[in-house]
């Protein structure tokens, strides 16, 4: 695989060769996943990674967008959009883009324009007629990647047709990696590049960080990591190996670290998020990333590390916790959406209004959520979501 900005082609604009057309889709997907993680370490790879995602899914263009809580644009990286239109989006049309409604949905779900606006209505908007239509863009597949009290981030894939099942199928296996990459980037964005001495970078993180080899041996840890190990609580250093007190989590950790030797080919969503519970009930979440491909090799090679595990204390960041809570308690998408809206907006009436559903519907979902999570009050749900919030805040 080619790496580095000088040697890699810009996939979105080149004419595919016969070899490209006949390439194994699984191999192409794996290559894109590697690029996604590499872009967390080298932001210069972001545009060409978006290019490759657009090409793989059949979209005309791709953009990574960050907006503040009320929908005003903070920044945008795009591929496949001409410079004049990219500039006009940043300066004017970004505020009219209806995709900002994605902030009301769950992290990691694939949506299209019709999920918040009938397509006929969309085609009457200023955004469509003055910005999208001149580019022959008709729809967009959108995924919420992260949301905090102050901002939200999402990826949009613009198409020259209504978003179809083929595009959704192509995009879905990429989504978990995009979500993880955004979270990991948040750990590193205020720090020096990992191409600099890694111990300086890791020691500057509030999150505990453990560099691990394929056998699970700790090859380096930062000060926060040493603090975690000194507790001898939910994580231990046993003869140089990192061991989780919970047998199930330890097995997942061991298998994931062993698989990291193979790189991203072994990455699976269920082996990435690790919810740890301390003896006093305090919750922590771990997040594992392979370090065996591309730019990430620079961070681990000096320590023979094949993976890095970030571990941090849970804090209230409801959207980042959505996928973990949903998996742990087997919530349906509708139940997860109600849970997050209750946490964000408060009572039943406020939740019903924001979701545009009947209060009786909210009450029905809440009853099921209480049963599944073994809670009784809305205050308990806030505490629950806080316990599983983002594992990688810096």
CATH T-level topology of the largest domain: Beta-Lactamase
User: Helical proportion?
Assistant: 40-55%
Number of helices: 17
CATH architecture tag of the largest domain: 2-Layer Sandwich
SSE series: HHHEEHEHHEEHHHEEHEEHEEHEHHHHH
Would you write up a description of this structure?
- There is one protein chain.
- 42% of the residues lie in helices and 19% in strands.
- With 394 residues, it is an alpha+beta fold.
- It folds into three domains: 18-187, Transcription factor LuxR-like, autoinducer-binding domain (Beta-Lactamase, 2-Layer Sandwich), CATH 3.30.450.80; 195-313, Beta-Lactamase, CATH 3.30.450; 318-387, Orthogonal Bundle (Arc Repressor Mutant, subunit A), CATH 1.10.10.10.
- A five-stranded antiparallel β-sheet has the order 2-1-5-4-3. Strands 7-6-12-11-10 form a five-stranded antiparallel β-sheet.
- A hairpin with a 4-residue loop joins strand 1 (61-68) and strand 2.
- The longest helix is centred in the N-terminal third of the chain and has 17 residues, at 25-41.
- Residues 1-23, 190-197, 264-271 and 390-394 have low confidence and may be disordered.
